[in-house]
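Researcher: If only I could read backbone structure tokens as easily as an amino acid sequence. Walk me, if you will, through where the backbone shape changes along the chain. I have put the entry right below:
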Amino acid sequence: MQLLNPIDQIFLRLERRNQPMHVGGLQLFSLPAGAGPDYVRDLVARAREFDDVTPPFNRRLKYRFGQPFWVDDVSFDLEYHVRHLALPRPGAIRDLLALVSMLHGALLDRSRPMWEVYVIEGVVDDRFAIYSKFHHSMMDGISAMRILRRSLQDAPDARSMRVPWQLPATESEDAARRAGPLTDAWRTLQATTRQIAALPRAGQEIVHAWHDARSDDDFTSIAQAPASLLNCRVSGSRRFAAQSYSLTRIKRIAKAFDATVNDIVLAMCASALRAYLLEQNDLPDRPLVAMLPVSLHDDDSGTGNRVAMIFSSLATHIADPVERLAAIQRSVNHWKRRYRDMSPEQIMAFIAALSTPAGLNLLTGLAPRHQSFNVVISNVPGPRETLYFGDAEMQGMYPVSIVLDGQALNISLASYRDSLEFGLIACRRSLPSMQHLLTYLDDALDELEPADDAVAGDSVHGS
């Protein structure tokens, strides 16, 4: 029995019918040459043979004295968690994304381990897809990406298969399992000591942030986000849209502006949001603010939540895309300088103190239009090499994240091979025609590059 840490408990308490608190991912695979009509059915049957499920996938919630604990599920049912679906012919990408939209809006069953995997056959052009979702109290997006990466192979092998729920332990996990109670107690004491020692520096940074908010135009505080269409109460319905962009192209543009890939991504999102809100006659006079999660994981073993935040201006009040990019760079660089000399514990303590009002607002839903940020934009590094599930080549991987009351849109992306894979998830009712953002992302990239060098995004579109 293991007590959930305070951050993981928050994700449980935030969950309501209109805001499921799970992260997910959509992976596209090509059928190998010579695959028969039962290839996907046989693949699912083989995956279900991996029934010796490892933590955290075999753990469900149990409450004692009002507190949530993880306990082993003694009646685990793998067929419930691993499901086989098929698209109606011809299996258009639009139909696939519509299905993912519906699945992502459904709550996970809290009486079972809180994860599900759907293998979806019948995708156009001889492909199939795997959609997975994991409750955020189990793992964050970085952890989910690492687990999904470890379940794939570097070379095609029809005889070999790995699945997320039964992976060999890493060296760090092996060491943790071999550790006795005294070692666990010592590590807990060390972690607690580091957290207490971080408080004075966090307090100093709070004071500095207060002064910066009054005197530094490049500092984006948690009190600057304007009310917008993106910040409203949400329903339980979702719309998912996805698109791929050439990483080589984005790096070339970044080099031309002495920027980072993340700077260009933020500029793309800013331009797209500006165009979308102009279309909806709802562009605020003040710039939108994006919250950028920053991973503080120090190895590849963690499956919990260890994330800091950067609050970046998107400079959506600026019409010129180049000036907008420069303003975004200055805003992000201010936060990078602030974090450079801080330990992970100091950063966590600083962010916890700084964002307490925002957290209470999200937790209570009292003022959905008055948020500390307007949109979450998350970039998760992914694999550069081609990966396989058995002998099926993975063609793309698209993150699917969380929508909240007051945060009706989430933009997440992951890199794979030479692509940046965008996954946009929104409340279907709150943001009409959200899929238009894909067109505006294309336009935004073209704006930063000479027209004769522009290349359209790949053909994965919204539902």
User: Anything to note?
Assistant: The mean pLDDT is 85. DSSP finds 13 helices and 15 strands in the chain.
